[in-house]
Amino acid sequence: MSSLPIAWYRINLSREQFDSGETEIVRAAFRGAYIACNGPRGAVLYGGWGDDRATYRLYFTPPALRCARALLKAYSGEVCDPPDTRRLEWLYGDTDPQAGFRLAF
Question: How far, in Å, CA of 3 to CA of 44, rounded?
């Protein structure tokens, strides 16, 4: 049995935060944390606009929790349902996120 978390997490950014470059700040911080954690398999940061087009959502795969705890705390991240990643942009992390999920389940 694996000890990997199974929850997805999300950070919501306002349009103003997005326009001011906050997404790039989160991406850079995640990149540094991902590298510091030796690139956990399956750890990915995705982003995309919510249905309201007023909120930009940053999604962290379950294995990303290993290196994103500080970011999630700083941005009041919340547990969420798994998103449809086909509708999202890959921002950083494992280029084969399914590898981490195969390990977790």
Answer: 18
Query: CA angle, corner 45, sides to 41 and 46, nearest 5?
Result: 125
Q: HSE of 17 in the Cβ direction (CA atoms, 13 Å)?
A: 15
β-sheet bridge partners, residue 41: none
What is the rounded radius of gyration, in angstroms, for the C-alpha atoms of the chain?
Answer: 13
Q: What are phi and psi of 57, to 5 degrees?
A: -110, 130
CA–CA separation, 29 and 77 (whole Å)? 14
Q: How many Å apart are CA 78 and CA 94, to the nearest integer?
A: 21
Phi, psi of 33 (to 5 degrees): -70, -40
- Contact by Cβ (8 Å): 78, 36: no
Domain boundaries, the chain: 8-93
Write out pLDDT tens, residues 9-59: 999 999 999 999 999 999 999 999 999 999 999 999 999 999 888 999 999
